[in-house]
Amino acid sequence: MDEPLLTIGAFARAVGLTASALRHYDECGLLVPAEVDSGTGYRYYTPELADRARLIVGMREAGVPIETMRVVLDSPAGEARAALAEFLEDQSARTARAEEAVRGVLAAVDAGPAARPALVELPGPVLAAAIRQVRHAAESDPASELASVLIDVGGTGVDVVATNRYWMAVRSLPAAAEGDGGRAVLSLPDAAALADRLDAITTAELRIADGTLTLAGQELGRDTTYPAHRLVLAGLEPAVTRAVLAKADLFAGLDAAAYAEVDLFLGDQTRLRSPHTAEQSEVRGVVTGPPTRLRLGTALFGRALAACLGDEVQLAVTAPDRPVVVTSPYQPGFTALVMPVRHDAEG
Question: In the beta sheet, which residues pair with residue 174?
Fold first, then answer.
């Protein structure tokens, strides 16, 4: 007897995930629906998927990265336990480092003067375009603290940032800033409304203090933490393999793969291939450095490509399990980081 099919809403309520989270895990290939209606695109789930979903909920609550989730869900018990033990060990080390860093910051706060507000001027339409360019990297679940756009004022200008932990988009805008720097985290609706206002402002004068951005008397900002993107970018290891590739060929290859993941082979004959079929597509471009293979989430990689201006994209690859740096040769101030999908190194 066939198992009953549950709509995405009913399944979401049953397992404690949002519908947007279920769509994301489908895109990542972590929790694939039992059926997808070819006409409407509606996803349907069977009750037997609930146990897998509840494991995902538990790991998500603990902050387990998606690569480790995949090992836990799809590997023998011994490998799953080893992966979780390694995660806990890493978490403990990060917690110890965080405690030490916070103690140092507290000491500096106690000893130093109050920070001066960050003041910066830049063209309104330019900042509006930057917000719209990066916002697609933000988490889609409104309840998440990452359903936001970061405006970060530093010594060299303004960084506009969005991330959902699986990929990050950063647009750096040169501008003369005064004060000690500052950052404000805006909800996606507030960021969209700000971009609309900025379109009509020739020169925008921003003030950021205590996590609040002020423009023409209006204050915006979420009381939330946000990843330190400057540290992430500064901590990237030097690229081993670099490529300049035709964006149209990459999009065509992603469409042809027709699967949640795709393998990108960089070398003399660069190509995209579905990991589950023989379907592959040639990609025009130039590759320097040793050949390498990456497995990427189709939807995530597609969004990063769409955010890049121009007909070509540049990739900088350190290793198959490290972030891929995606940039545009036509817009030096834009950077995207895309996390590859964990895979075996055959092929």
Answer: 157
Look-up of token digits 């806990």: 88
Tell me the C-alpha distance between 65 and 86, whole Å.
Answer: 12
d(CA 28, CA 24): 6
Q: Are residues 127 and 154 in the same domain?
A: yes
Count of beta carbons in the 10 Å neighbourhood of residue 177 = 21
Tens digits of residue pLDDT in 235-272: 999 999 999 999 999 999 999 888 889 999 999 999 99
Question: What is the model's pTM?
Answer: 0.65
Query: Which residues does residue 212 pair with via DSSP β-bridges, in sequence order?
Result: 209
CA triple 146-196-133, angle to 5 deg? 50
Cβ count within 10 A of residue 184:
26
CA atoms within 13 A on the CB side of 345: 5
In the chain, the number of structural domains is 3
The DSSP secondary-structure symbol of 4 reads P
State the amino acid at position 78 in one-letter form.
G
HEC sequence for 306-339: HHCCCCEEEEEECCCCCCEEEEECCEEEEEEEEC
Q: Is residue 264 part of a domain?
A: yes
The kind and range of the H/E element at 250 are helix 247-257
Range of the domain at 128: 118-231
CB 34 within 8 A of CB 43: no
The sheet that has 43-45: what strands, in order across it?
6-7, 43-45, 35-36
CA-CA-CA-CA dihedral for 294, 298, 304, 307, to nearest 10: 140
CA 275 to each of CA 26, 35, 317: distance values in angstroms, whole numbers, following the listed order:
16, 20, 20
